[in-house]
Amino acid sequence: MEIQILHARSGKTLTNLPVSKSSTILDIKKQYYKSNAKYYPDRQAYRTDPKGKSLKDEETIGNLNLKNGDALYFKDLGPQVGWATVFLTEYAGPLVIYLMFYARPALIYGELAGSPRANVVNIAAGCWSFHYGKRLLETVFVHRFSHATMPIMNIFRNSAYYWGFAALVAYFVNHPLYTTPSYGDLQVYGGLALFVLAELGNFSIHLHFSRMRPKGSKVRKIPYPCGNPFTALFNFVSCPNYTYEALAWIGFSVMTQCLPAAMFTICGFYQMTVWAIGKHKNYKKEFPNYPRGRKSIIPFLI
Predict the structure, then answer these.
(1) How far apart are CA 302 and CA 297, in angstroms?
(2) Cα dist from 67 to 9, 18, 77, 180, whole Å
(3) What does the pLDDT read at residue 222?
(4) What's the burial of 299, exposed, middle or buried (CB within 10 Å: 0-12/13-18/19+)?
(5) FRET pair for 85, CA 20 to 30 Å: which of 62, 95, 118, 231?
């Protein structure tokens, strides 16, 4: 049997492909790639409706109830780049930029750079370096991505966000005229304690997610707490990694009492909330027995 491949936007017939009931969307992508080398499989998406949802690679012609002469709609996702490359670029930039302000203040602040540093400035540099160093190591050794690539333009958008905020926060925290927190060591070490605990929690969740998905697979399961006490947050929210991430930056903002750090925290929390709500909805749609009491990111609220 054959199916038509139509362009999702124009409706133009691109080609006809021979398929069987057991052919998958990934098989179709590979076939199309043979005659159109520009469109490697990760750049292609197929839909049963021009404005519908993109089909998963493992979907088969038989499961989609497609018959001889039926059509699939092709969408070009544009040039792609690997997720790991995106993450490494996003996270290496903030680490280098922040340490440049911290280690070479004379390049940024000129003559003012000779002023003695408050201890909280050193602690903040350590926290920032730990966070982004952890992210880089997690990208290489822990994370397992369900999708191999993402649009290449995302690397510029995401890097602008992370790198820009890194420069803004670093400029004010490392400034020679920086004012220490109002409540002194109590505020500094209280914020530091929250930051450290939240970072440990975030790492615990990432490690748990990684162990749930066999290497090289796209298996999805309902996440439940394990022996690690930090994973108990799964009893209340679907995305505790985002919850811990937000808590870490709240701790950093309290510790430094820096407005740009608070702005970074608020913007990050907003974006993570959007992601968490979307993932929570997908969990409920995919798993009929998904725990009803869970929220997306904030226990009992969101």
Answers:
(1) 6
(2) 22, 12, 26, 70
(3) 95
(4) middle
(5) 231
pLDDT at 147: 66
Task: Give the bridge partners for 3, in sequence order.
Answer: 17
Angle of helix 119-141 versus helix 240-256 axis, rounded to 10: 160
| 269 in Cβ contact with 246 (< 8 Å) | yes
Write out residues in the chain with pLDDT < 50, as ranges: none
Three-class SS string for 195-234?
Answer: HHHHHHHHHHHHHHHHHHCCCCCCCCCCCCCCCCHHHHHH
What long-range pairs does 290-296 form, CB within 8 A, spacing at least 24?
290/222, 291/222, 291/235, 293/235, 293/236, 294/234, 294/235, 294/236, 294/237, 294/238, 295/236, 295/237, 295/238, 296/237, 296/238, 296/239
Residue 237 is given by DSSP the state B
Of the chain, the percentage scoring pLDDT greater than 90 comes to 78
List beta partners, residue 24: 60
| Confidence (pTM) | 0.86
CA distance 108 to 110: 6
β-bridge partners, 46: 74
Which runs of consecutive H residues, i.e. helices, occur in the chain? 25-35, 83-103, 105-109, 119-141, 153-173, 184-212, 240-256, 259-286
Place of tokens 């993402």: 150
